[in-house]
Design goal:
Blueprint: E1 27-30, E2 40-49, E3 54-63, E4 73-82, E5 89-95, H1 96-99, E6 101-111, E7 117-125, E8 131-138, E9 150-153, E10 160-171, E11 174-183, E12 190-196, E13 203-209, E14 219-228, E15 231-239, E16 249-255, E17 262-263, E18 280-288, E19 291-299, E20 305-313
Antiparallel strand pairs: 1-20, 2-3, 3-4, 4-5, 6-7, 7-8, 8-9, 10-11, 11-12, 12-13, 14-15, 15-16, 16-17, 18-19, 19-20
């Protein structure tokens, strides 16, 4: 008989199983700007620089909709750094006035093969009246210059009305950008894919993760991807309709090619908050050594959204 220490999950016919997290056991990383529904700190994107020994976190702040309030909706985004992944210090910020935006949405931070940093940032453009995606590049995350940003993805005439909430990964030497987009008629919010060899010029590939048939029939937005050979896990946000698109819930899908995804739970989301509207969304999963770090935005008892982190061991 094999020793107990040598028995693996594969002996149970479990292949590529990723340990998940208990949302209630997470630690608060960032507090929202207010204590009411519509007040959020989240939409996070996290990376780790081993050479610097630092976690770098992108997040945005939002206030409730209020006519005449210059700080309504997504009014500011920030970069922060940390040694432990929990206690962060702000090192950069940009307001919606800096961007010429109506509202700032989620961004995606990534380090290039050359060691530079890129921030793919989405916002509703004041002049365009639609969401678009810009890219900022710098040697360090605290040195992004809003004035030097360049637009990398715009809505597509007669095909895509809005593009937002990018999630960017580098596979080999190819940049994959997963984009939350609204079809022209706005019946739903799906996830599309754009590819690029240089991370600047992206080519639209079309829809790769459409809305579901039940609890996620209105929204299906991929928020992060984890590679567990031979498959990829995709965390995504779903909602029954567009009216619920501010209080989504998170679930999981798997893929072998990053283009076709199979839902793990058709009947309902896998992750919820026990408070308020129950929203838990924008899961950003970071694999670091023998641990998984899960960052997520969830609803507090007062209805506001805070950013939390949950650390899970990968050891069997």
């Amino acid at each position: 008989m094999p020793k107990k220490a040598n028995v693996t999950s594969e002996s149970k016919r479990w292949f590529g199983v990723l340990p998940l997290f208990d949302p209630a056991k997470g630690r608060t990383v960032l507090e929202p700007p207010g204590k009411e529904p519509g007040s959020w700190a989240g939409g996070a994107s996290v990376t780790y620089d081993a050479q610097a020994g630092r976690f770098y976190l992108f997040y945005r702040l939002r206030n409730p909709r209020k006519t005449g309030d210059p700080k309504e909706r997504g009014y500011e985004c920030r970069m922060a750094e940390s040694k432990d992944g929990v206690r962060f210090k702000d090192i950069w910020a940009a307001t919606k006035e800096d961007l010429g935006a109506i509202s700032i949405e989620r961004g995606s931070i990534i380090q290039t093969l050359e060691g530079r940093y890129r921030l793919y940032l989405s916002y509703e453009d004041l002049k365009l009246g639609r969401w678009k995606i810009d890219m900022l590049e710098a040697a360090k995350p605290g040195e992004f210059d809003v004035a030097s940003r360049r637009t990398v993805f715009l809505p597509i005439d007669r095909v895509v009305a809005h593009v937002k909430d990018p999630y960017v990964i580098l596979v080999g030497r190819l940049y994959f950008m997963y984009i939350s987009y609204h079809p022209i008629r706005w019946q739903s919010s799906n996830t599309g894919l754009a590819l690029s060899g240089d991370g600047v010029e992206f080519v639209w590939q079309g829809d790769v993760f459409a809305h579901g048939k039940g609890w996620d029939t209105g929204v299906a937005r991929i928020s992060s991807i984890v590679h567990v050979p031979p498959m990829f896990y995709a965390f995504y946000d779903g909602a029954e309709n567009m009216k619920a698109s501010c209080e989504e819930n998170a679930s999981l899908a798997i893929s072998f090619d990053l283009r076709h995804f199979e839902r793990v739970s058709e009947s309902g989301p896998l992750f919820r908050s026990p408070h308020g509207a129950g929203s838990l969304r924008y899961v950003d999963a970071l694999k670091l050594g023998d641990e998984m770090l899960y960052y997520y935005e969830w609803t507090r008892p007062d209805g506001a959204h805070e950013l939390r982190m949950n650390r899970v061991s990968l050891r069997s």
